[in-house]
Structure formats: C-alpha cells, structure tokens
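Researcher: I'm preparing a figure for a lab meeting and need a structural model of a single chain. I don't have an experimental structure, so a prediction will have to do for now. The sequence is pasted below. Please return the structure as tokens so I can convert it later.
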Amino acid sequence: MASSLNPVLGYTIFYVRDVAKSVDFYAKAFGYNVRRLDESHRWGELESGQTTIAFTPKHQHETDDLTGEVQPPKSHLHRPPMELCFIYSDVDAAFKRAVENGAVPVSQPEDKVEWGQRVGYVRNIDGMTVRMGSYVGS
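Model: Understood. Here is the structure written out token by token.
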C-alpha cells in the first residue's frame, strides 16, 4: 500500500493512435492479459503484475490542455527520453512471438555481458522502441 512518502508505481500510460489495436497488439505480441478495454475504446489496461500498462488516445483534450500535446519521435532515428523493457526467461522466443504478431524487429537478441542481460529490440505499432531482456547472470 502506498503512503504519502512512499508511492507505488500505478500505471505506465501509452498515448496511441488506436487504443483497441494497441491493447490487442500488446496482448498478442508480448503475452499480456487484457484487464479492461472500455466501450468507447478511449482507455485500455493490461495486467502486468503490481503495476498496470494502460493505453489512451494520443490526442485528448482532457490532458492536452493541461500538460501539452503528445509529440511522437520525428523519425525512426529519434526516440522519447524513456524506454520500456519487458523481462522474459526466454527472450529469443518472446522476440519471435512479438515479431510474428506485428512488432518490427530493430535488433535481434544478443548477450550484453556488461549489462548482465540478453537483449533484443522491437518497435510497437506506434513506432515506439521496446526492449526485450532476459537476465543472463549477476
């Protein structure tokens, strides 16, 4: 339980072109269970342990007026100043499943000994890079 001084991460929210398509893509490509997709398709959630992965439209007057407009990267050479990483026990099989379900391969899985991980990268259906990692040692 969160206290006033020790918060708990509740959501990671993605601003996307199509909430229903993104929820379906993440469920199939990365293996998440759908927790909720509202009837308006303006909010969707995936079960991801103690936190929630959520999706909402990138153009939304409720938040655009308060915090500004979402600005996607200008090209595949740009990326936002954050990265999402999913950890799998078999990153090669997870990478293969993601690509078979619409993820665009960026970098095939390879051992990153200095990081202690096996890592591959894909792009989701909105062009965001997702790291797929597997611990290989301490």
